Amino acid sequence: NDKTIQANDFIELFGKLGGQHPGYRKAHAKGLCASGTFLPAPSKYFTGSQLLSNGELPVTMRFSVGGSNPNSDEKSPGARGMGMQIQLPNGSLHTFTGNNFPVFAGKDPETFYGFLSTLIPDENGKSDPAKTMAYIKQHPSVQANALWNKTAKTAASFANTEFFGLHTFYFEQTNGQKTKFRWHIEPSLGVKTLEKSEADKMPTEFLVDTFAKQLKNETISFTIMASLGEAQDSDIDPSQQWPSERPQVALGKVTIKTSGGEACKNINFDPNVISAGFTPSADPVLKMRSQAYAISFGKRLSGQ
Ligand code: HEM
């Protein structure tokens, strides 16, 4: 009997999990801003899209570490995120905001909230693993993500991390033909993680410097891929992965030009802000994100 959860319940929960950090994002508080260009790869599945028919476009990106603590330990494995906003000539935006795990922790906001609630520390600063285990057992839609978490290794660099959109989106062509897809982003430098023994030797913070060094010495780029869904693939449940054999189509390639700076401060990487022809699915987790991000955006810009 899970109660209905509102966006603000998540904001309060994040505070209980990671503490109060006024002026910061209430999730993914620690991050690195970057800018670059998006070169589209036109394809018959996205014919007529403004996103793919205007040539090279400017991009602002923010790479992040999951959680609400802006001083989190980068040696720890776990969630890494990426927000990307592509600026179209007509002033509209297309946002891609994803994480490094391929499957979400829960079929709906209530399940995700219930799972996170088991991680709230008690007065001694410790959470109860037995409580978390019991919740996972009773809520099968959390299991795939929990399994990922169990074996996840520390990201070596944002430039060596793959990011997954997790939700389903649609593109509708002018002739009415619909493309059902989920996106993910592949790093041109390859996916690299650190073994625990390697991570232990790293300083608490290394992601910004590692990225800057890579940017100086080589080209950092990412290819945005779309997996094309079949009728039986869920479009409302981000805890259900689609079969890996689904056709893959490139949407284009993002090449990073600069990193650092404050350009991301005033950006809300709301995944429902997307360009003409694209529509979000009815996934309740995806819907909840817009509301939660808006609350967080308002709070952090007003110093809360
Ligand atoms: C109910 C589910 C979710 C809630 C309540 C939630 C909440 C939030 C909030 C409040 C922020 C801070 C926004 C801001 O201040 O600009 C945020 C950031 C972020 N979230 Fe979520 N999120 C959810 C699901 C997801 C999912 C499914 C993904 C990945 C596919 C994701 C990836 C990210 C990333 C990458 C950021 C950082 C964006 C940036 O750099 O500005 N979140 N989330």
TrEMBL record:
Top EC class for this record: oxidoreductase
Coiled coil (UniProt feature): none
Record-listed E.C. numbers: 1.11.1.-
Residues engaged in binding heme: 293
Keywords assigned: Heme, Iron, Metal-binding, Oxidoreductase, Peroxidase, Signal
Entry-linked SMART domains: Catalase
Catalase core domain: residues covered: 1-301
A Gene Ontology molecular function term of the record: catalase activity
Cofactor(s) needed by this chain: heme
Superkingdom in the source lineage: Bacteria
SUPFAM superfamilies: Heme-dependent catalase-like (SSF56634)
Active site, renumbered: 28
Pfam entry (one): Catalase
GO cellular component, one term: cytoplasm
GO biological process, one term: hydrogen peroxide catabolic process
PANTHER family in UniProt: CATALASE (PTHR11465:SF9)
Family: Belongs to the catalase family.
Stated role: Has an organic peroxide-dependent peroxidase activity.
Name the record gives this protein: Catalase-related peroxidase
Organism annotation: Colwellia ponticola
